[in-house]
From TrEMBL:
SMART domains: SRP54
Keywords: Cell projection, Cilium, Flagellum, GTP-binding, Nucleotide-binding
SUPFAM superfamilies: P-loop containing nucleoside triphosphate hydrolases
Biological source species: Pseudodesulfovibrio nedwellii
One Pfam family this sequence matches: SRP54
Sequence ranges assigned to domain SRP54-type proteins GTP-binding in this UniProt record: 153-345
Stated name of the protein: Flagellar biosynthesis protein FlhF
Record keyword GTP-binding present: yes
């Protein structure tokens, strides 16, 4: 049994994993005061349990296991799908398409739309030379614009890799809603206190715009915020970039957010990560609570195929598009048309055309 102290639960948990490995069991996780500063203390241990006798495998036990482990089940299914797609790839015969369809397929490939998605589009087009590329694409991508009427949950949390644009997007979307509906009672909460900068940005804008500000150092603070959530119409939660081996599911458990039905999580990503990196992030940020993807730094990207790839891989809608670092006129609630304009015309959501 060991005690770990750090500025917040994220950092303390990273220490637990580095020291005790992935089988560590958390015995307690509290906010404490150390030298006058609030911080997190986790007590963790590694359990050496006797090896359980092998369970008899029956049809029911297999189904039970699968139902209990929905994430594992999805992973397996996505691997199977990947293998089917790999087998299908040589079957893509562009000469079976009409010249217009073929041109569209070649264009999408140049825009970094991946093989899996191209195979799906091909199957949709193959048997009907008059079918337009847009009717084949339409079912693959959905947008749910980031506007309060579409996102009714009280808690809106922003997750994703460090530097992706979580804090900036959160601030801009919160200020946009405040401007459109000044009576909305908004709270900005940060669980990213450790590194300092994001926390200060959030605090600064909260003070400047008359929004409430809360800090989430451990699960105790989140429980408190849930208790006082009646005071607010919307609570924006800024999550930290997760250290090396920590997954979003582990992190959410650590902060007691897994049983918060009133929370939507948005994954903030840039379109220009490599394929391997996207796969890594899809694994790391997989969660039942993920509700949308927010794409940022569109102004810095030269292809946008990854937006479609991610929509197909995750089934999540796109909710917002960010295309500049400034606070003003740099983020928009997403629509499907905006994404297609990006992909086919390199047109930013504000109408600017990418050279
Ligand atoms: N060019 C550009 N920069 C952006 C965009 N969104 C965010 N940034 C910048 O990216 C950097 C990291 O953003 P931040 O919100 O702190 O990322 P976080 O670590 O995910 O919270 C900051 O310098 C932002 O100004 C965008 O759409 N375009
Ligand atoms: Mg941040």
């Amino acid at each position: 049994m060991k005690t770990f102290k750090a500025a917040n639960s994220t950092a303390a948990f990273a220490k637990v994993k580095a020291d005790l490995g992935k089988d560590a069991v958390i015995l307690s996780n509290k906010t404490i005061t150390d030298n006058g500063c609030k911080c997190c203390e986790i007590v963790a241990a590694v359990e050496h349990s006797p090896v359980a006798p092998p369970r008899q495998v029956t049809r029911d036990s297999v189904v039970d296991d699968a139902l209990q482990d929905t994430v594992g089940w999805q992973r397996e299914w996505s691997q199977i799908k990947g293998q089917i797609m790999a087998l299908m790839k040589p079957q893509i015969d562009l000469s079976r398409l009409s010249p217009k369809q073929k041109m569209a397929m070649e264009y999408l490939e140049r825009e970094d739309v991946n093989e899996k998605v191209l195979a799906r589009i091909y199957c949709n087009l193959r048997d009907d030379p008059s079918r337009s590329i847009m009717t084949a694409l339409d079912p693959l991508l959905k947008a749910t614009p980031f506007e309060p009427m579409n996102w009714a949950n009280k808690f809106q949390a922003f997750t994703g890799p460090g530097g992706a644009g979580k804090t900036t997007s959160l601030v801009r979307l919160a200020l946009k809603i405040k401007k459109e509906k000044p009576n909305t009672r908004i709270c900005l909460a940060t669980a990213d206190g450790g590194r300092g900068k994001g926390r200060l940005v959030l605090k600064h804008y909260a003070e400047l715009s008359g929004l409430a500000f809360r800090e989430i150092i451990t699960r105790d603070d989140f429980a408190l915020l849930q208790k006082e959530s009646g005071q607010f119409d919307m609570i924006f939660v800024d999550l930290p970039g997760l250290p090396g081996k920590t997954t979003l599911e582990e992190w959410v458990h650590l902060y007691g957010m897994q049983n918060c039905p009133d929370m939507s999580m948005h994954l903030v990503l840039n379109p220009y990560y490599s394929t391997a990196q996207f796969e890594r992030f899809t694994e790391k940020y997989k969660s039942e609570q993920l509700a949308s993807v927010i794409w940022t730094k569109l102004d810095e990207a030269c292809t946008f195929g990854s937006i479609l790839n991610m929509a197909c891989a995750s089934g999540l809608p796109v909710s917002a598009l960010s295309y500049g670092a400034g606070l003003k006129n740099s983020i928009k609630a997403a629509s499907e048309e905006m994404v297609w304009r990006l992909l086919f015309m390199r047109t930013m959501p504000n109408g600017d055309i990418q050279p």
